[in-house]
């Protein structure tokens, strides 16, 4: 119900309070992160911690890190990540902002040469940030060396006014009434703004005092390292958002009753309808699947970072493919699922008090930010094509592509599934997913060699990423899992996750010969049985997410199930209900009604 200005100020207040508590309680970075999650409104702090600090960590020299991170950690400066421009987002190499070295003063001149080069979107840029890592084309000795990162001060640390040569503001209201409107995504134009040479982030490359450009011995792809880090955190965000939506829809489905009463008896809980289960339980399974793959991705990222520190860059391409692919698949599935959860809750799901519209609006842009999901899947496809060609030349693939080494078997194997029960076998499930992913990648590589097209590999990329998620779920089940019967429930969810994908992508499985039509129909039969088995525990499985009513923010998803009185109470809080007769009655309704009355009496 807050206006944009009130919402923005409210976020500033909450973030400042969280920061105060972080300092007072001496919270670790991990604990502070958890606290931030409970603010639960996008704000400048996200960019400061998730992009500004990591960009300096990844691309700054030790000296630069010492100087800037010290200030950033103490919140003496607030930073953002200014990469995207009005005319350029996905194509980073196409950015236009220039950083031209002037040896006479030992400075870079930062400039926006065109309208389309205006920085556009960075979170916190519009009204809050004092500093930014700005991405610009480095020009020295008359040569354009492409995109590099530069630390720029944007606003005065005394009165917060923009520094000379910098025009800066908010880009305007966004989708939904709340959601991302708490964030001041910004626009910025630079008019020949000078910064000292040592504010170029110099871990990847340096410009000497004389203006000479020098490469370091680290791969230039590390320029994109901050995005790898954030994409990894976004997978965990997606799993959290999806589990919130599913929690609301499952709990409400157990309360809501429609039809089915016999002789005046109670109606049926909508959660008992098979159609409801087949729409909703795959999301429940996905919420668990994304959580487990998110945990694994965090491990992978930590592992890669440790290797990078000891100058082992070999796993960087895989880390890029995994983070890009998983960010893409999990955020797209989550946005679609939240929208469907609204429909699963019927009309009440469309009310703001259900919590679902806000959840949808705030998570939808995750399909776009940190890399448009289609563009990122094309990066995965590129990685797969390279791996296929390496396999063809005898190289043994490792990590998430290790299955491609089993090419002889996977290209011709037939699924062993013969009965409905066979679809309970994780090895049988894994094999069909591996075969489908490999066959699609190989087909794509063959098609590309005939008619090169970057867009060919999209479907193959999806198949590969789904294989990763299924595999990590299966691997999770091989660990010790505490709690009586918990493992059995997770096994059922794992089955639902995998088999619903077979159902959804049956065309791929059939056309690649990985599954026969009969096996596809056995999978559907198994799926129906699993839905019925999960039903008695569905509410417990969402209670296990352990969300408080406050955090869930939903009249429909309340733990106590007292949905109708909550909806009723929420309705009366609407500003329209502050008066019995609405504002505008005197000017617009009364004269109209009076006039019509007069006319009818003539
Ligand atoms: C006290 C402590 C308190 C702590 C408090 C903590 C609080 C924490 C809160 C956490 C909450 C989380 C909240 C999350 C909020 C998230 C906010 C998001 C805000 C959004 C930000 C943005 O959107 S920033 C802008 C993002 N932009 C993009 O993503 C652009 C996408 N485009 C690209 O990445 C590139 O243009 C490209 C990859 C699509 C193409 O690149 P290029 O033109 O160079 O071409 P190639 O395709 O030829 O690639 C060349 C080569 O490089 C490889 N490669 C590409 N990318 C990467 C990479 N990232 N890493 C490694 N390698 C990469 C590519 O594969 C090619 O390799 P080859 O070997 O040549 O094949
Ligand atoms: C809420 C939000 C917050 C953001 N925060 C930041 C931030 O803090 N800092 C920052 O720098 N940026 C930020 N961004 C910008 C974001 O990173 C870009 O929007 C994103 O990278 C996509 O780029 P684009 O908008 O230019 O889309 P475009 O690239 O113009 O995409 C438009 C369409 O074209 C398609 N397309 C593009 N290229 C290809 C291709 N090669 N093949 C096939 N299809 C293609 C896409 O799939 C899409 O459908 C934010 C964006 C949002 C929405």
From TrEMBL:
Keywords assigned: FAD, Fatty acid metabolism, Flavoprotein, Lipid metabolism, Oxidoreductase, Peroxisome
Domain Acyl-CoA oxidase C-terminal as annotated: residue spans: 426-594
Domain Acyl-CoA oxidase C-alpha1 per the UniProt entry, residue ranges: 224-385
The Acyl-coenzyme A oxidase N-terminal domain, residue ranges: 2-78
Required cofactor(s): FAD
GO MF term list: acyl-CoA oxidase activity; FAD binding; fatty acid binding
Keyword Secreted (UniProt): no
Main subcellular location: other
BP terms from Gene Ontology: fatty acid beta-oxidation using acyl-CoA oxidase; lipid homeostasis; long-chain fatty acid metabolic process
GO cellular component: peroxisome
Places the protein is found: Peroxisome
Active site: 370 (proton acceptor)
Alphabetical list of InterPro entries matching this protein: ACOX_C_alpha1, Acyl-CoA_ox_N, Acyl-CoA_Oxase/DH_mid-dom_sf, Acyl-CoA_oxidase, Acyl-CoA_oxidase_C, AcylCo_DH-like_C, AcylCoA_DH/ox_N_sf, AcylCoA_DH/oxidase_NM_dom_sf
Residues annotated to bind FAD: 84, 123
Family, as annotated: Belongs to the acyl-CoA oxidase family.
Name of the protein in its database record: Acyl-coenzyme A oxidase
């Amino acid at each position: 119900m807050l206006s944009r200005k009130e919402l923005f100020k409210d976020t500033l207040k909450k973030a400042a309070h969280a920061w105060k508590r972080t300092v007072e309680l001496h919270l670790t970075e991990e604990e502070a992160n958890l606290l931030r999650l409970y603010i639960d409104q996008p704000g400048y702090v996200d960019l400061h911690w998730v992009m500004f600090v990591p960009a300096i960590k990844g691309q700054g020299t030790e000296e630069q890190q010492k100087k800037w991170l010290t200030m950033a950690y103490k919140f003496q400066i607030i930073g953002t990540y200014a990469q995207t421009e009005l005319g350029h987002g996905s194509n980073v190499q196409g950015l236009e902002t220039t950083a031209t070295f002037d040896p006479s003063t030992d400075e870079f001149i930062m400039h926006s040469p065109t309208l389309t080069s205006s920085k556009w979107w960075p979170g916190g840029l519009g009204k809050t940030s004092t500093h930014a890592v700005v991405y610009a084309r480095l020009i020295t000795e008359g040569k354009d060396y492409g995109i590099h990162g530069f630390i720029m001060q944007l606003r005065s640390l005394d009165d917060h006014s923009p520094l000379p040569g910098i025009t800066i503001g908010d880009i305007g209201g966004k989708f939904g009434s709340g959601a991302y409107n708490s964030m001041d995504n910004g626009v910025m134009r630079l008019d020949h703004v000078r910064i000292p040479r040592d504010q170029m982030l110099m871990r990847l490359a340096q410009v000497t005092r004389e203006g000479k450009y020098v490469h370091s011995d680290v791969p230039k792809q590390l320029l994109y390292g901050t995005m790898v880090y954030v994409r990894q955190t976004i997978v965990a965000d997606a799993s959290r958002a999806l589990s919130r939506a599913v929690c609301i829809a499952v709990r409400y489905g157990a309360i809501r009753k429609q039809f089915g009463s016999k002789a005046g008896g109670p109606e049926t809980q909508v959660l008992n309808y098979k159609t409801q289960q087949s729409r909703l339980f795959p999301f429940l399974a996905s919420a668990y699947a994304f959580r487990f793959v998110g945990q694994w991705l965090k491990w992978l990222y930590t592992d890669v970072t440790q290797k990078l520190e000891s100058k082992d860059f070999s796993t960087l391409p895989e880390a890029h493919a995994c983070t890009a692919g998983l960010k893409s698949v999990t955020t797209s599935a989550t946005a679609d699922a939240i929208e469907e959860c609204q429909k699963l809750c019927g009309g009440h799901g469309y009310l703001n008090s259900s919590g679902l519209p806000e959840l949808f609006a705030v998570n939808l842009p995750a399909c776009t930010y940190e890399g448009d999901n289609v563009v990122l899947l094309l990066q995965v496809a590129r990685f797969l094509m390279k791996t296929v060609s390496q396999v063809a030349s005898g190289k043994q693939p490792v990590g998430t592509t290790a299955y491609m080494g089993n090419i002889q078997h996977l290209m011709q194997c037939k699924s062993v599934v013969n009965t409905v029960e066979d679809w309970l076998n994780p090895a049988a499930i894994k094999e069909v997913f591996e075969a489908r992913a490999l066959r699609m990648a190989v087909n794509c590589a063959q098609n590309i060699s005939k008619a090169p097209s970057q867009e060919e590999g999209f479907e193959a990329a999806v198949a590969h990423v789904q294989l990763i998620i299924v595999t990590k779920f299966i691997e999770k089940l091989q660990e010790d899992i505490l709690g009586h019967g918990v493992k059995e429930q997770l096994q059922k969810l794992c089955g639902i996750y995998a088999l619903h994908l077979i159902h959804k992508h049956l065309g791929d499985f059939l056309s690649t010969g990985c599954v026969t039509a009969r096996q596809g129909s056995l999978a559907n039969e198994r799926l129906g049985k699993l839905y019925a088995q999960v039903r008695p525990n569905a509410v417990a499985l969402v209670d296990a997410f352990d969300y408080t009513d406050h955090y869930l923010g939903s009249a429909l998803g309340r733990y106590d199930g007292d949905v109708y009185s909550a909806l009723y109470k929420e309705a009366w809080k609407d500003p329209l209900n502050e008066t019995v007769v609405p504002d505008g009655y005197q000017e617009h309704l009364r004269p109209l009604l009076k006039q019509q009355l007069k006319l009818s009496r003539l």
